[in-house]
From TrEMBL:
Pfam families (alphabetical): PG_binding_1, SLT_2
Keywords, sorted A to Z: Signal
Protein name per UniProt: Lytic murein transglycosylase
Keyword Signal: yes
Signal peptide: 1-28
Peptidoglycan binding-like domain boundaries: 343-398
PANTHER family: LYTIC MUREIN TRANSGLYCOSYLASE, MEMBRANE-BOUND LYTIC MUREIN TRANSGLYCOSYLASE B
BP terms from Gene Ontology: peptidoglycan catabolic process
């Protein structure tokens, strides 16, 4: 399922080099080097896994390096948006209206999804909207070229080489045209933007034509998305995200992902729902995407499934919130958050935190999990409200 255009897990080149040595001579070239030699190794691996040489040739014979793919992979600036900016941008009245209409239009498919996998229609519909505007914008990168480019590139070959092998399998099944199939820059295909391995594992033929066609068939896309989300561990009948109001007397250091209390315990501390009822028996984390003065949400266990879909906190929280809106929740109370940091200030903050010994990852100006955790710890040490929201005041204190 789509994990782009947002960051994926990274792996060390050293580890991959070790893997290449262990698997030689079966696969002589894991990544890099002469492109045609690399493709020959991919074909060799595909045939060794039982795929036909003709399908491999059909898939790989015209493959080319796409420099635009590498450029997109290196520059993912959307992560630098705040939750309020990003959510307002992607949750439009158009998407709300069309989301509601599609839930009615494909009600029978959504009913099947919920019956078989327990995943509610708003959850899938929100992803469908955010990924491709209900199929209208699916990407114009040649899928095979994108996957071959990223598999050849030595940054994350352990992710993309298997996807290229899976694309060969799709060609063999008649579900991918190597010359004409297009999608996202990172190789995802179709209305819900899935990678080839996931399509093979979880693809469902909902319209009965004998193929899984996620580009053209909304029923196939809906049922496949439901199967994938169900596989990730979605708990039927449980909430995923709930907007709440919070008292300003709260201990902010207890907020954030990975820090949970029961819904009842949060309620006892004065946390109140803006819509629906707090699920008292479920564990929940209190999320403050822009600090204690901005919107607040209780994230229940099903929220973790969103992080399996995409690792960006801003994207996942926006997608989960969008699904609550489609389910009937009101627009969030944006509050009045303290001003955040611009790109240069964020990089300066990350540099200072890194110098203090905190693991913030790459100095990239992105407020990721590592930076949020470090900010919260430093705020606590400095006697500031530890809500994990970096401000100019914090930067000045450092």
């Amino acid at each position: 399922m789509t994990r782009h255009p947002f960051p994926l897990k990274t792996f060390t080149v050293a580890a991959l080099t070790g893997l290449a040595l262990m698997t030689a001579p079966a696969v002589a070239q894991q990544c890099g080097g002469d492109f045609q030699t690399f493709l020959a190794g991919v074909k060799q691996e595909a045939v060794a896994k039982g795929l036909s040489a003709s399908a491999a040739d059909q898939t790989l014979s015209g493959a080319q390096i796409d420099r635009k793919v590498l450029s997109r992979d290196r520059a993912q600036g959307v992560f630098k948006m705040t939750f309020l900016d990003f959510s307002k941008r992607v949750i439009s009245s158009y998407r709300m209206k069309n989301g509601a209409a599609n839930m009615v239009k494909y009600a029978s498919v959504f009913d099947r999804v919920e019956s078989e996998y327990g995943v509610p229609a708003p959850v899938i519909t929100a992803f469908w909207a955010l990924e491709t505007d209900f199929g209208a914008v699916q990407g114009d990168f040649n899928t095979v070229n994108a996957l071959a480019t990223l598999a050849h590139d030595c940054r994350r070959p352990e992710l993309f080489r298997p996807q290229l092998i899976a694309a060969i399998e799709m060609v063999q099944h008649g579900d991918l045209d190597p010359q004409n199939t297009t999608g996202a820059w990172a190789g995802e295909i179709g209305m819900v933007q899935m990678l080839p391995e996931d399509i093979i594992k979880f693809g469902k033929d909902a319209d009965g034509d004998g193929h899984v066609r996620l580009k053209a068939s909304a029923p196939d896309a809906i049922l496949t998305a439901g199967a994938f989300i169900g596989h990730l561990g979605w708990q039927p009948g449980e909430p995923w995200l709930q907007e709440v109001t919070v008292p300003q007397s709260l201990n902010w250091a207890e907020t954030g992902l990975g820090k949970t209390k029961s819904g009842s315990d949060w309620a006892a501390l004065g946390v109140q729902p803006r819509w629906g009822q707090i699920s008292g028996n479920l564990p929940a984390s209190l999320l403050l995407p822009q600090g204690r003065k901005g919107p607040a949400f209780l994230a229940y266990p099903n929220y973790n499934i969103y992080l399996e879909w995409n690792q960006s906190f801003i994207y996942t929280t926006s997608a989960a919130y969008f699904a609550t809106r489609l389910a009937g929740a009101p627009r969030y109370d944006a509050g009045n958050p303290d001003p955040g940091l611009n790109d240069a200030q964020m990089k300066q903050l990350q540099t200072k935190l890194s110098a203090l010994g905190y693991d913030v990852g790459k100095i990239d100006g992105i407020l990721g999990a590592g930076t949020r955790n470090a900010v919260q710890q430093v705020q606590q040490q400095l006697g500031m409200p530890a809500d994990a929201w970096p401000t100019p005041a914090l930067l000045n204190r450092l």
